[in-house]
Amino acid sequence: MRGSVKTMLALAAAMTVQLAGAQEPAQPATQQLSPVERQIVAEIHAHAPQALELLRQSVLINSGTMNQAGVRAVGKLFRDQFDELGFKTRWIALPPEMQRAGHLLAELPANRDSRGKRLMLLGHLDTVFEPGNTTPAWEPQTEADGSVRRIKGQGVSDMKGGDVVIVEALRALKRVGALEGRRIAVMLTGDEEEAGNPKTVSRGDAVELAKRSDVALSFEGSITNKDGMAAATVGRRSTAFFELEVKGRQAHSMGVFGPGGYGAVYEAARILDAFRQQVVEPGLTFNPGVILGGTEVAFDDEHSRGTAFGKTNVIANTVTVKGDLRYLDYPQRDRAQARMREIVAQSLPGASASINFRDSYPPMAVTPGNLKVLEQYSRASQDAGLGPIGAVPPESRGAGDIQFVAPFIDSLDGLGASGGGAHSPNESLEVASIERSAIRAALLIYRLTRQD
């Protein structure tokens, strides 16, 4: 059942408040865990150094999205881990013309005794750091006492740290005999940072896997909400685009506002300011990222750059605007697009305009099912003595792979390691967060795979 955006956001906010009030457990956390769960936690603690070494190995391999060989090499590193855990692995190649490396799929072999919820775990192998980037690949930050609490480097938190969390959570489950007979699949995509087109192809295998799963867990970096509370993602806004083309009557500038009309630039300004003032809803944003105007305009879509020519004594005849549009769900998209079209149609004298829309990433709506998974994740965290987990407002996160599968199954994102500065030379990861996130994830996976 899918409620309205307003209702679901209210539920998420209420859950955050409720969980924050439960921050202090009534008794020691270990008493909340079963004997097997305590073993799982102990295994993760015991093998924390190996987890950090796996992260180091993966980060030292450049895997910028366009570095296909590098993406495949990181995929091989993680494929070896899943092979050791008894997963059946395969590399999903994409058509050569898409210029993307492909994806890694690992699945536990199913049999007649397999049971529990069918889980889909999501991560990605690529980073935004292409070969030649000057950001250091691996830079431990040593404290005064000699300890290393943070690592700076290429993709440490977005999201090779999350990939390591997946492996370590599953490894702990394997060591205590908790993977046998469970239905778990892992997909690590090779082009999350710049998904190949058409997305029906680059995300087709993920969608098909979702259709035969019950719950999707994605391991993008965990974050802290505005209240300082650890938080996971129950919703993400779509990524979409708008293109505004405006035409005016070219004439001498002395005629502007009169016989010459208002021209393309004034018309574009009217439209954009009307969008700002009249297309207003919580969670809805639209950003005119590029605008070119004059009497001659050219824009190169492939390289996102353009040129414009004009003179101050000539009324401009052309304006091109390229923009970003983000919405919480399809009804909100439809309302926004309808109102934007109405505004565009109300042209100033001597001008006309047209607007086109193009969807990219679908929205991950906040649903009761997503909130239920969050509740179980928070309970696992509290039982382990790690505190509750709140909900991240959907407008606070960008696009991610989970959006392609969330329309089909209950989904939760943000289960990875904690860091900061993603996509920048200051990208970093808190070392201890690998262990925390692996414990939380392992307990959630353990509990979900024992539910029908």
From TrEMBL:
Native organism is Massilia aerilata
The record's section on Pfam families has: M20_dimer, Peptidase_M20
Residue ranges of the TM segments: none
Q: Where is the signal peptide?
A: 1-22
Taking every annotated instance into account, which residue ranges of this chain make up the domain Peptidase M20 dimerisation?
234-349
- Cited InterPro entries: ArgE/DapE_CS, Bact_exopeptidase_dim_dom, Peptidase_M20, Peptidase_M20_dimer, Peptidase_M20A
Output the SUPFAM superfamilies linked to this UniProt entry: Bacterial exopeptidase dimerisation domain, Zn-dependent exopeptidases
Record protein name field: M20/M25/M40 family metallo-hydrolase
Required co-factor? Zn(2+)
Q: Which UniProt keywords apply?
A: Hydrolase, Metal-binding, Signal, Zinc
Report the Gene3D superfamilies cross-referenced here.
3.30.70.360, Zn peptidases
Phosphoprotein listed as a keyword: no
